[in-house]
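Q: what sequence does this backbone want?
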């Protein structure tokens, strides 16, 4: 439809993404466009309701939405088109909007988090209040509902599913009126058709837009007389009825399609072969390169001949496009077959050939996939292929190469952050492959490992433990204890143990795994180095910081000296190493390392990438520990705000940053704000980690400290005593977290006037520290400084004097005379310990 009174300007919005090209032959539908415009512009509603366009296939729902977007584009700042046929791809399509809204991209935050950030931005109207999001072919209302933005903008949904009327206001889109059909044919065929002929064609095709489009394409390309065409359609219609087509196939569409295909079968049989192959892909765009990359795997002779010859393939696609049987998009190098045409083609294909063609599609998809699903530069290729995984029936295929591809797709999904979609696919893999093979088949067991990884990323640690422990036992028995898949399962199991807070047991499992690798292959492989990295993390979580540093140095040297190591993996190891240095008490060295790592993250990955933000958090903690409190507070505020924007309050990384910010606020004397922040963060710990997780107990130590500093030492004592008992049971009485809690508990006792009890606890704790940490370790210095106060308060003046002299000398040597805590020792002030949750 040409510009009319509804279109105020030809100006495009500031953001105009993935909207299909305008149909120059769009005809009629004025009443529907008017109704749609009125419906998405409620006069007295604050939130515009999404509007679903519901109707049968080929009726023109998508074309109506396209025309609406083009005709009213001047009313919007942002218009975004989402192909919603494949539900698992909807989050990534929504997440792709992040950059346009000034948000961190999905490559930085993960797809699900980016999609949620996009929804929040649209709903808030920042930066755009006038926006239009179109969900095309959204057949699953229950799923799509979670991704519909509710805010000042507008949403249009196209669907064949009548259930949308249960969720949203619905406009029914019917076939053309006869006047619209005739106007369309006159426009498409120019002077090549009379009104009487146009009426005859419209009559025989039942005014179905898609059938009329294909009829016009055939008539214009072949110059077939209208009466001949009508006669063929009538003849084919009789054949169709005799074949008993399902009622969901419009009779007119079936007959029109058969005429077009019959024109090709004699002249271009190779084109029909390609078309039949395309019928077994999904309805989404098919990457053109699938045929090039995957053609060597094709076994069907007729199809292989066309796909292996680029000239013959180009000619076949050209013929299909001319007859409107295939839509080719040169800019994206994709082609698409209407879902109704696909259904008709599959139904027409002899039954003995259907499985063969379906398997050819499986081969094409699997052989054209990139090798590494962790490679972010290949994500776009995986997304194109993933759209066809379920519709093609690939999950039911038992070919080892095809199943390997299916597992790559699910790995790609959860690496990019689509955890729920990955979980749903894995459930289907496991159920289908178990029935086809058995529950001990290697493919099933590998799928179970992937599912455990997904559960762990979702922080479903109990579910992850149940599946990982059972899978590892089955792999040991049925595959072998030292096979690569079993060793990978061991690493996954250890990671789940870490997530559950079983730090020592996780270390034991990884130690055993690393010993096997050392015996079998050495440490020259990145897979082995990942286990070494995990060992460094384990040692850090069990307070053996020197060993942690040794392990992580090895991994850092390995990664720094080799090409092809991902920047994300390098930065993660770099940060792990810097954290180990800080926890061993070398604060100034930790600052230098953390600053260098953070700069690398900002310049090489992006300032909003989660790993960069974790590096920023570590830098802020090191700055605070080294006495640069103002800088630490500024950086931690910014980091917490960025993580909150990405994840919300209840994500583990945001919770850790909240603790870091609270600690920096406390160090700055802003106790009330620090207390409010730590209280809020702790409300999420039981749901994420559990009530008896070491992080939950250690976090309560921070709360107890702030309770004492704000005037309630009795509540602080009670909370610290519970936390110390829990930590002693979960990680031992000698662990860093337990020692930290005990030092603060002694402060609670002193504040309550119980100086003898404070002294006894301080002396006991100091002895533990001397045994398990170095005399110059930060915990040792803090405990000694506080013990001096408790000795003096309990009457042991001379002992306090001697210990203070030694402690002051050590503080000056380790921390520097100008460090705030060195000055506090000289002023006779009590020092405080706190907890900063590390990544696990």
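A:
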């Amino acid at each position: 439809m040409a510009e009319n009174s509804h279109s105020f300007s030809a100006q495009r919005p500031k953001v105009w993404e993935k909207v299909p090209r305008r149909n120059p032959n769009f005809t009629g539908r004025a009443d529907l466009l008017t109704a749609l415009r009125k419906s998405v512009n409620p006069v007295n509603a604050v939130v515009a309701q999404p509007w679903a366009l519901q109707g049968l296939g080929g009726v023109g729902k998508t074309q109506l939405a396209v025309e609406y977007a083009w005709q009213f584009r001047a009313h919007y700042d942002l218009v975004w088109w989402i192909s919603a046929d494949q539900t698992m791809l909807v989050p990534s399509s929504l997440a792709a909007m992040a950059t346009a809204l000034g948000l961190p991209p999905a490559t930085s935050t993960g797809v699900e988090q980016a999609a949620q950030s996009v929804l929040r931005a649209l709903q808030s109207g920042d930066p755009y209040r006038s926006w239009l999001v179109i969900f095309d072919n959204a057949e699953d209302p229950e799923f799509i509902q979670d991704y519909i933005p509710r805010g000042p903008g507008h949403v249009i949904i196209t669907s064949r599913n009548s259930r949308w009327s249960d969720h949203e206001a619905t406009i029914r889109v019917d076939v053309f009126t006869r006047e619209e059909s005739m106007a369309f044919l006159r426009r498409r065929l120019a002077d090549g058709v009379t009104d009487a002929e146009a009426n005859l064609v419209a009559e025989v095709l039942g005014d179905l837009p898609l059938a009329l489009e294909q009829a016009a394409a055939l008539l214009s390309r072949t110059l077939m007389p209208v009466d001949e065409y009508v006669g063929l359609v009538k003849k084919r219609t009789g054949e169709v009825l005799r074949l008993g087509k399902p009622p969901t196939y419009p009779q007119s569409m079936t007959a029109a399609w058969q005429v077009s295909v019959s024109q090709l079968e004699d002249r271009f049989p190779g084109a029909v072969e390609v078309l039949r192959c395309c019928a077994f892909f999904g309805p989404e765009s098919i990457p053109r390169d699938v045929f090039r990359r995957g053609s060597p795997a094709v076994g069907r002779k007729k199809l292989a001949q066309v796909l292996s010859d680029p000239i013959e393939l180009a000619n076949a696609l050209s013929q299909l496009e001319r007859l409107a049987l295939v839509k080719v998009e040169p800019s994206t190098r994709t082609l698409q077959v209407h879902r109704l045409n696909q259904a008709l083609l599959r139904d027409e294909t002899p039954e003995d050939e259907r499985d063969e063609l379906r398997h050819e599609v499986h081969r094409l998809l699997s052989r054209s996939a990139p090798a590494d699903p962790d490679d972010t530069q290949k994500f776009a290729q995986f997304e194109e292929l993933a759209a066809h995984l379920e519709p093609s029936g690939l999950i039911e295929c038992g070919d080892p190469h095809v199943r390997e591809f299916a597992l790559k797709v699910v790995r790609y999904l959860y690496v990019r952050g689509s955890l729920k979609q990955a979980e749903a696919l894995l459930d289907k893999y496991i159920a289908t492959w178990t029935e086809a093979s058995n529950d001990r088949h290697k493919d099933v067991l590998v799928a179970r490992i992937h599912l455990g990884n997904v559960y762990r990323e979702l922080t479903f640690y109990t579910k992850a433990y149940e599946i990982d422990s059972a899978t590892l036992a089955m792999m040991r028995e049925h595959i072998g204890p030292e096979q690569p898949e079993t060793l990978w399962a061991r690493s996954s199991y250890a990671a789940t143990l870490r997530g559950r807070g079983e730090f020592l047991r996780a270390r034991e499992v990884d130690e055993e795994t690393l010993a096997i690798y050392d015996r079998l292959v050495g440490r020259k492989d990145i897979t082995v180095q990942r286990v070494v990295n995990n060992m460094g993390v384990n040692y850090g979580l069990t307070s053996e910081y020197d060993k942690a540093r040794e392990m992580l140095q090895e991994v850092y040297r390995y990664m720094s000296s080799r090409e092809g190591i991902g920047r994300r993996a390098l930065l993660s190891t770099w940060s792990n190493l810097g954290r180990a240095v800080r926890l061993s008490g070398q604060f100034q060295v930790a600052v230098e390392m953390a600053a260098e790592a953070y700069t690398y993250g900002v310049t090489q990955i992006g300032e909003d990438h989660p790993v960069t933000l974790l590096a920023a958090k570590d830098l802020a903690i090191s700055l605070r520990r080294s006495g640069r409190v103002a800088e630490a507070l500024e950086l931690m505020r910014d980091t917490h705000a960025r993580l909150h924007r990405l994840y919300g309050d209840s994500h583990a990384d945001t919770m850790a940053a909240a603790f870091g910010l609270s600690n920096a606020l406390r160090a700055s004397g802003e106790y009330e704000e620090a207390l409010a922040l730590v209280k809020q963060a702790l409300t999420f710990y039981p749901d994420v980690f559990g009530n008896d997780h070491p992080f939950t107990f250690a976090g309560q130590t921070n709360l107890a400290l702030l309770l004492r500093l704000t005037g309630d030492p009795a509540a602080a004592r009670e909370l610290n005593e519970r936390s110390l008992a829990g930590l002693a049971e979960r990680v031992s009485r000698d662990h860093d977290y337990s020692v930290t809690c005990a030092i603060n508990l002694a402060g609670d006792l002193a504040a309550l006037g119980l100086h003898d009890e404070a002294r006894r606890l301080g002396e006991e704790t100091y002895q533990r520290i001397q045994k398990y940490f170095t005399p110059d370790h930060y915990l040792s210095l803090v405990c000694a400084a506080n013990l001096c106060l408790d000795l003096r308060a309990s009457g042991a003046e001379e002992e306090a004097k001697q210990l203070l002299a030694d402690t002051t000398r050590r503080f000056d040597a380790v921390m520097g005379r100008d460090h705030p805590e060195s000055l506090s020792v000289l002023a006779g002030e009590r020092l405080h310990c706190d907890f900063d949750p590390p990544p696990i």
